[in-house]
Request: fold
Amino acid sequence: MRNMKDLSKVKAIFFDIDNTLIDFMKMKERAIEVAVEAMIDAGLPLSKEEAKKEIYKIYEEKGMEYQKVFNDLLLKVLGKIDYKVLAAGVVAYRRVKEGYVRPYPGVTYTLIELRKRSYKLCVISDAPAFQVWSRLAGMNLHHYFDEVITFDESQIKKPHELPFKIALEKLNLKAEEVLMVGDDPQRDIKGAKKLGIITVLAKYGQIFPVDEADREQIPDYAIDDVRELLKLLPSKHLSSQHH
Reply:
């Protein structure tokens, strides 16, 4: 955005997954909505709004990846876990989540085109490995990536440099040969910029604003659609990689 970087040396693209490749928040909201209705139907003594409010409070405290959110809700409301209510919620949540994991428009096309141009592709996620692979498989994207770096491997979350360093080492690349695409200015952009990786803000999935006072959060580029990457990156990479 501020200083246009030289993209002719780029050999790989790193992607965040949630809200960059998939509309994670929309999927989560839909799944919670349906789960709450199922739990109330099974005997949870709260209104829909009350239940949702409590669930989001738990997520705020323990993170959006927290797996025992319904257990915590029941312990708080009932003082114990009613397995009839818990099972109703979990089953409803999973059904919606599995049916709803879809890539943003243009994601599959963009990944195919980038591979045709011989770019290496990598996912860097703060989520555990099984969840990341489940999402990729659910979207039928699990074959496109050369490397997938998850919390299981790094044991530390972005914006720490380690997940990015692991990806660079595995692909044997320098920071200036990589583009990082992510929706979160703090975790994705700042984390990558610390190492000198060129950054692209996925504005179409962005939830948190850029803190303009923190220069490391200001991306090199911003896109409103993932397909814009194809215009951004030189197509000459295709000819240079094929002998």
About this structure: The chain is about 45% helix and 10% strand. The beta strands are 12-15, 120-124, 147-149, 178-182, 198-202, 221-223.
